[in-house]
Design brief:
By secondary structure, the chain is α/β, with parallel strands linked by helices. It folds into 2 domains: 189 residues, 3-Layer(aba) Sandwich (Rossmann fold), CATH 3.40.50.2000; 152 residues, Glycogen Phosphorylase B (Rossmann fold). Helices cover 48% and strands 14% of the residues. It has a 7-stranded parallel β-sheet, with helices on both faces. A 6-stranded parallel β-sheet has the order 10-9-8-11-12-13, sandwiched between helices. Helix 1 links the parallel strand 1 and strand 2. The longest helix is centred in the N-terminal third of the chain and has 18 residues. The protein is globular, with a radius of gyration of 20 Å.
Length: 367
């Protein structure tokens, strides 16, 4: 009988889980691959990890490395040590890493030194901002990866410009759209906005978590003031990330609540996407949400100076804004008639299938 290829899927943080799910289901449906989920434990809040597995129909992780919180160096080092041990005990035929978190770069470094073939899903994204830890993780991972699965043409171009051989690059599309379609019925049935007392199209959603926004007190204060001003024009629902809640403190949370901003805890994927799908606009510093709003045709005001997903601006619904311009841009976005926007190619909910086809081809061609 033909050998069944063992595939390790690294999951570490909320966006990873969403990207891993469609690929796990697609690999599980085959007879020539055995997918194994390795949860590094980088994010351990139940609403941001374990509940997402249930929402996306994933089993409990096959391995849990239990890394937990810590500095970038601590997390990276702990993942390298723990994953190296696992990979030596249960050597996979392929390691698939996703996104740009510390666990992605760390597992890639451990696997690279063991000469385990590495696949990077969502390769080639670049912000050109090395102050972002995620940018360093992307650069490291793409250099080490044997196969680079890209979401869009700009990612292909970035890799080619950096000297990556074209034969290592395959454009597969955006797997986040697969995640959405995987649970669309549950998202549509959830009605989390209704539970909170909001009608579809009658509110905006806010997410903030990037260090450049929440770790600098002056910047966070400006953003709080901007959100309070925006609240006067559009009721806001703010699922507060644990780190952001800590940085805001009691005083910052009280200012937002007094102004009428609805503060809620982190929501599992289905409930969170129920919020996003019904929103009139989204205010965020997240990369993934720029993609989801583009897919759904919802205005996205991105509180960053740059983005590693420029296609969501050139072809999608996102725009970069700062705190000073947030209210002005929000009012303008709400005044524009809703219209269908062009979706980037391969953002169609079928990315996981293309990944499996490419992995099968490359498995067959490997010496």
């Amino acid at each position: 009988m033909p050998k069944v290829a063992l595939v390790h899927l690294i999951a570490a943080a909320r966006p990873n889980f969403m990207k891993v799910a469609p690929l796990w289901h697609a690999l599980k449906a085959t007879s020539d691959f055995r997918p194994v989920i390795v949860h590094t434990g980088q994010h351990y809040d139940a609403a941001m990890s374990d509940d997402i597995f249930a929402d996306l129909g994933l089993p409990a992780p096959d391995h849990h490395l239990g890394i937990g919180s810590g500095s970038h160096a601590e997390q990276t080092g702990k993942v390298m040590i723990a994953y190296e041990k696992l990979a030596m005990e249960e050597r996979p035929d392929w390691l698939i890493v996703v996104g740009d978190v510390n666990s992605t770069a760390a597992a890639s470094m451990a696997a690279g030194k063991l000469r385990i073939p590495i696949v990077h899903l969502e390769a080639g994204l670049r912000s050109r901002d090395r102050d972002m830890p995620e940018e360093l993780n992307r650069l490291v991972t793409d250099v080490l990866a044997d196969v680079l699965w890209t979401p869009s043409a700009d990612a292909d171009a970035n890799l080619i410009a950096e000297g990556i051989p074209p034969e290592r690059i395959t454009r597969v599309g955006n797997i986040m759209m697969d995640s959405y379609e995987l649970v669309r019925p549950a998202i549509e049935a959830a009605d989390y906005p209704g539970e909170l007392g909001y009608a579809p199209g009658g509110y905006g959603v806010v997410t903030l978590h990037r260090p450049s926004n929440v770790d600098v007190p002056e910047q966070l204060d400006r953003l709080v003031a901007a959100l309070i001003a925006a609240q006067a024009h559009l009721p806001l629902i703010f699922p507060v990330h644990p780190r952001t809640k800590q940085r805001l403190g009691d005083a910052g949370m009280a200012r937002l609540e007094t102004a009428g901003v609805k503060l809620v805890g982190p929501a599992a994927y289905v409930r969170f996407m129920s919020l996003v799908a019904g929103a009139a606009a989204v205010i965020t510093d997240s990369g993934g949400i720029q993609e989801e709003t583009t897919y759904l045709g919802i205005p996205c005001l991105t509180l960053r100076e740059n983005t590693e997903r420029p296609i969501t601006i050139s072809e999608g619904t996102a725009q970069l804004v700062n705190a000073d311009k947030l209210l002005e841009r929000l009012i303008a976005a709400l005044a524009q008639p809703k219209q269908d926007r062009k979706r980037p190619g391969y953002w169609d909910g079928k990315t996981a299938g293309r990944c499996v086809e490419d992995l099968r081809r490359r498995t067959t061609e490997r010496p």
